Amino acid sequence: MIGRYRLLPLAFGAAILATSAAAQDTAVIAEGRAVLEERCSRCHAIDRTGESPHAEAPAFRTLSERYPVSALQEALAEGIVTGHPDMPEFVAEPVQIAAIIAYLESIQTH
User: Fold this and answer.
1) Residue 72 CB: number of other CB atoms within 10 A?
2) Is the pLDDT confidence value at 9 over 50?
3) DSSP-assigned letter for residue 79
4) Domains, the chain
5) pTM value?
6) Nearest to residue 103, comparing CAs of 77, 67, 69, 68?
7) pLDDT band at 81 (very low <50, low <70, confident <90, very high)
8) Of 50, 89, 103, 110, which one has the fewest beta carbons inside 10 Å?
9) Model confidence over 28-70: pLDDT tens digits?
10) How far is Cα 82 from Cα 25, in angstroms, rounded to an integer?
């Protein structure tokens, strides 16, 4: 009997860690969306639905149809300077890059 009761705190602790990790993931994804809202939503559809305001700007939910979303890490770090004609240069910090990638992965349609 004593062995079972000793495992309860471990199971409870694991549940707290899993909940904390999920909350952290949610916060990171929300931060990625916030960055994209500020910097990209003027031209791109940044959510799971909706059309891009700029006809030549792809909806972010379809990026994985072109290449793996994780492949954007280097481009975001170096500065994206190509895209649609009106696209401004965009350079992100490492923490922002991780958040952007997490958000983009969370909205892909496939």
Assistant:
1) 17
2) yes
3) -
4) 2-107 (1.10.760)
5) 0.75
6) 69
7) low
8) 110
9) 999 999 999 999 999 999 999 999 999 889 999 999 998 899 9
10) 30
